Amino acid sequence: MKYHIYSLSFKKYSLILACPFFFLAWLIWSMETWFEPLNGDLTRLGYLLEEDFGWNMQQPFVPIERMKSFSIEEADVLVIGDSFSAGLVWQSQLVSEGLKPATWHWNPLMLCEDIGVAVRQAGFRGRYMVIESIERSFQKNMSYRCNKTINIRKNAYAGLAPETDRIRIPSTKNPLGGDWMFKALYNKIKLSRLNTSQDFIEFGPVRVVPIDGCKLFTNKMCEYGLFYFNDFNKKTYSAIANVLAVNRNLHKVGIQAIWLIVPDKSTVYLGYGKYNRNPYVNIWQKLAQHKELTVPNLDEKFIRESRQVKDFYVPNDTHLSTNGYIFLGNEVVNYINNIKKIDSGLSFSKDFSTTEMRQDIPN
Q1: Sign of CA dihedral 293, 299, 300, 302
Q2: In angstroms, rounded to a whole number, what is the distance separating the alpha carbons of residues 107 and 115?
Q3: 77, 217, 229, 252 — which has fewest CB within 10 A?
């Protein structure tokens, strides 16, 4: 036996060693032609198939020319936001109304005591500032203590037109990789054994929850909802003092703040505080107790709209669909228009009280 092995030529011996690797590479390539390209953060992080959780309903078209972040000097609306504002999709509704939004990255250090003076010195001459944050991060973002001078960096977001249909052709530039696909197949088998009487099952940072989802989503496995684990790790909200301080600071320089708290996906589809590890406080109700604050009650409106529009949040991601973003943009437009009506009937100055304004703005 040893004689036959040593008698093999180097070429044949190399082929014997290489064949298993070629077979594995061919298997992975074949699997990639069957798998759809990853489209959502939750399917990517949870190693779950787009075939099962990808959205299927066509979304509206948003012209790229409406997805614009203007310079701070020419803007009449300043948006400070997180990933929900990064694509500039909801801001397209502001542009459609003739407004000029400038959208900046959310940076907690930006919301310090002298934020109003800082944005004026940076060149902002507008009237409105939209401060947008996802619910799960708002407590952390507003719990800082900052005595530093603010250095405004004009680092605006750049948007891309959202897809109207989900991409289904595998990409040769960004292949999934064998590790992801084999884990996805394993999770597919694991999910098939999930008892719908269970509260949830976790796949890494993704929580799969049995829900009556076929009335809410268009994905194939619509009886399950995908949620980000941080939705359930929110600290109890207690940062109202900082919100009021920032609001007063902006008011001193004639800027009306609109506090845009986007509900977590879990809040919209599972309910307030469902499965949350810490005692839950409804942020919108807490802020609404202070009449000087302008706070759209997105919690109630999103819950209601999500029951009317399928894929209001996309099933495979933590973010809104294009329909959801358009709804959000229209809400902001409505608030700004109502503020304008109030302003036009009053002599506006730096000392204008926002208490009366808040009472006349619809929730």
Answers
A1: positive
A2: 12
A3: 252
Question: Side chain identity at 340, as an amino acid letter?
Answer: K
Residue with the larger pLDDT of the pair 172 and 262: 262
Q: How far apart are CA 225 and CA 200, in angstroms?
A: 9
Do 73 and 125 meet the contact criterion of CB atoms below 8 Å apart? Answer: yes
Weakest-pLDDT range from 14-18, 45-49, 196-200, 201-205:
14-18
**With 80 as the cut, is the pLDDT of residue 186 above it?**
yes
In which residue are the tokens 């953060």 written? 41
Max CA distance (Å), the chain = 102
Averaged pLDDT, 67-86: 93
Q: How far apart are CA 307 and CA 242, in angstroms?
A: 34
| Residue 303 C-beta-side C-alpha neighbours within 13 Å | 11
- Which residues, 6+ apart, have CB-to-CB distance to 19 below 8 Å? none
| Tokens at 14, concatenated | 């190399």
Residue type, 330: N
Lowest mean pLDDT among 178-187, 252-261, 336-345: 178-187
Of how many residues is the chain composed? 363
CA–CA dist 185, 67 (Å, integer): 38
Q: What is the pLDDT of residue 266?
A: 98
pLDDT of 304 above 50 = yes
Can you read off the two tokens belonging to residue 216?
A: 């809410």
d(CA 275, CA 189): 25
